[in-house]
Amino acid sequence: MTQFDTNMKAVTVRQLMDLHIFKKYMRLVAGEGGLDRLVVHTTVWEAPDLAAQLEGREFVFSVGYLTRVNPELARQGFQELADKVSAMGFKIGRHIKKVPEEYIRIANEKNLPLFEIQSSCLFKWIIQSIMAEINLYQASVLMEVDHYFQDLYDTALDDSRDVRILTQFSERIHAPCLLLTADLQTPVWSTNFAPHEELDSILEQLRHVFPQRGLTESEWRFGEWHVFSLKAAELLLGYLIVRKADDLSDTSRLMLKQLRMHLTMKWLERYKGRQDSLTRLWTRLMNAPAREENAIREAMNANGFHPGEHFRVLVLHSRDEHPLFRRSAQFLMGTLGNLVKNNLTLWLSDEEGVLIVDADKEQEEPYYLYKMKEILAAESGAILSAGPRVEGLAGVRDSYRIASSCFRIAKRSSLNGVLYYEDWLHELSLLGGIDALETTLFMKKFLFPVVHYDAEHGNHTLMETMSVLTENSTLAQAAESLHVHANTLRYRITRIRDLTGQDLFDYRGRELLSHAFFCYCYRYAAGAGE
């Protein structure tokens, strides 16, 4: 057989029993439960160590010579063959009068089809009949596969939609099929698939099982689902899935091989085209968002993202450039995108993906981060960082920069795999400098509540209190400097704690408030507002 044919399943023992020579000269004496075993070769057994030289799936014939001259050695040899071959036949007459009862017992235990062959039958007659049946079978398979290839080619020229090509294949193999993108979010069903009400539950089942399997496997099966990956080099594009309770036939598998090749080439071209478009879009966002705003918004709309006025950038990154991150991250990004709904996904590298999300309705910490914490808790290779909510396309660059900076500060510190920029504002401000957006956000969180409180009350009481206390004065010294009673000062400190969540008596709290106050005094004129 050619290399193209070596994976064929060939014929079963049950099919061979329909041949004329089997009906005329052979009688099944044991192993009826193994009639569906596959036969790809034939050989003759008269040596005790034959089993070690076989590959499996052979139909073995014997005249029983070893059984006559050395029964114990023959029994051991038969035991070893029974664990490997597909069927065996013994010619009765010259060396043995009947198949030994011990052989029949072993064959029944192992479901090995065991035949008694009449002495007048030559082995070459049986071998020629079996090989002819195998060759005819393979010829018919290849002929049917060639017809499918021609139909696939014609269909692709006439109507290249995935659903049309998938339905054609599904009708050929008489089994429902679906295509699923690598992020496990976008299905394409063959039109003869399950009733519509079942589709969502089926998709959820697949999403639950896939992450538990090795996503790098080329082919695998669970239950009635036969899963085949669409891969180009190290890039996983998606999955072709067949729903069938039984094993796939040789014809189905060879047709499936051609379909996978066609879809992989098609999806790779589509992926590269989209990536090129998104890479150009990202370059515009990072370099000249104001000058090219109209073109950027048009490109976003063309890629399924409908931008508003406020954005947030989420960055998914490998903790340690994990070699399998690229594939598992596609599922994580798809899950996150499904939670956010209106978003644009970009892959900046094999270890970094970016989601630009519509944040028009967001105010506080986004709700979807809690769900991602659950998902990422079991994913040791990935970590997600969320940047701030920003206004306008020009702010996308800042949101991305701040989210990325969180990796430098706290890449290994998040047990749940999620970094939220607000938890690291002090460190981000130190990295960004006085005039950076990070410092503005830092002051907005830790100082502006105090500024607003004083403004509402028409004085600078709390700010003056912070000015004195951040100079490392004691409580008594600060009270004396402010010309107030110590209890009054304690009340003001309590009010500051209520407004900012930070305690001036705590080392960490004093450090945060001191830095915020320093930045505020540096950036704004004395007494100036926000």
What does this structure look like?
- It is a single chain.
- The chain is α+β, with helices and mostly antiparallel strands and 530 residues long.
- It is 50% helix and 17% strand.
- The chain has 20 helices and 18 strands.
- The strands form four sheets. Strands 13, 14, 15, 16, 17 and 18 form a six-stranded mixed beta sheet that branches. Strands 2-7-6-5-4 form a five-stranded mixed beta sheet. A five-stranded antiparallel beta sheet has the order 9-8-12-11-10.
- Helix 6 packs parallel to helix 9 and helix 18 crosses helix 19 (486-500).
- The longest helix has 38 residues, at 250-287.
- Mean pLDDT is 86; it is low at 1-6 and 526-530.
**Molecular shape:** elongated
User: What is the average per-residue confidence, as pLDDT, rounded to a whole number?
Assistant: 86
Unreliably modeled segments: 1-6, 526-530
Query: Cα-atom Rg, whole angstroms?
Result: 36 Å
Q: Number of helical runs?
A: 20
In whole angstroms, the N-to-C terminal distance is: 81 Å
Largest sheet: 6 strands, mixed
Name the helicity range. 40-55%
The helix-and-strand class reads alpha+beta
Give the oligomeric state.
Answer: single chain
Task: State which percent range the strand residues make up.
Answer: 15-25%
Q: Please report the total strand number as a whole number.
A: 18
What is the gist of this entry?
With 530 residues, the chain is an alpha+beta fold. It is 50% helix and 17% strand. Strand 10 (219-222) and strand 11 form a beta hairpin.
Task: Provide the fold topology.
Blueprint: E1 11-12, H1 13-16, H2 20-25, E2 26-30, E3 38-39, E4 41-44, E5 58-62, H3 65-69, H4 71-82, E6 87-91, H5 101-110, E7 114-117, H6 123-158, H7 162-173, E8 177-181, E9 187-189, H8 196-209, E10 219-222, E11 225-232, E12 235-243, H9 250-287, H10 293-302, E13 310-318, H11 325-340, E14 343-349, E15 352-358, H12 368-376, E16 382-386, E17 390-391, H13 394-410, E18 418-420, H14 425-432, H15 437-446, H16 448-456, H17 461-469, H18 475-482, H19 486-500, H20 507-523
Parallel strand pairs: 4-5, 5-6, 6-7, 16-18
Antiparallel strand pairs: 1-3, 2-7, 8-9, 8-12, 10-11, 11-12, 13-15, 13-16, 13-17, 14-15
Helix pairs in contact: 4-5, 6-7, 6-9, 7-9, 11-12, 14-15, 15-20, 17-18, 17-19, 18-19
